[in-house]
Structure formats: structure tokens, C-alpha cells
Design brief:
Structural class: mainly beta
CATH architecture: Sandwich
Helix content: 10-25%
InterPro entries: CarboxyPept-like_regulatory
Protein name: Carboxypeptidase-like regulatory domain-containing protein
Keywords: Signal
Distance between the termini: 61 Å
Number of strands: 8
Pfam families: CarboxypepD_reg
Shape: elongated
Number of helices: 1
Radius of gyration: 18 Å
CATH superfamily: Carboxypeptidase-like, regulatory domain
Length: 111
Amino acid sequence: MTRLTWFAALAAPVLIAAQGAPVLVTGRVTSGAGTPEAGVTVRIERLDVSTTTGIDGSYRLKLPGGYIPAGATLTITAARDGLKPGSASLRITPAPRLEQDFVLERTTAAD
């Protein structure tokens, strides 16, 4: 086999494993008191995707298919001025929809 053929043979399983349908991540961001937090940026930096929560604190973040193999773990963050940022590990599954909620506390003058 030539080098190119070997490379193609080795790379094919990786490319197949990484192909997949888009995944929808949904959730809600609330305060420690349980009230919804609007205007919070929810982001997965590794994929350069983000969205902002609505007035009810909910968000929808569509992850592009084909970039992340099932089983991968990504860090998802939620942040807004006046709130302590939060983060969580999000394990990608074959399911078309994942859910991740956040409870963010207000910052204080000492923070």
C-alpha cells in the first residue's frame, strides 16, 4: 500500500465516527432564588457557538453535526455581568437533544 492509501485506511474510521446529526442543547438559567435570568450568554468555546437566554431564562444551542464524536465531553458556560459565571461538562451522546440547566448567584462587591 502506498502512504496515501494507508492514511485513508487509518483516517476513515475517525471521519465516520465524527459524522453525525446536529445536537440541540437546551436548558434554563435561574438565580439562586429560582427566578429566570435573561440575557445570559451560554457558550461552548471549543465549537465557537453561543446563544443568549430569553426573558424566561431558557436557551437553545444547536451544535453542528459532523464536528463532535459521540462520547466527547465539552465545557458549556453561562455568564452575564452581575452574576457569577457557571460551567458544566457536557457529554455528547447519540441523542438529538441534551439538557443543561444553570443556577447562577449574584456577585457581591467583594467579588
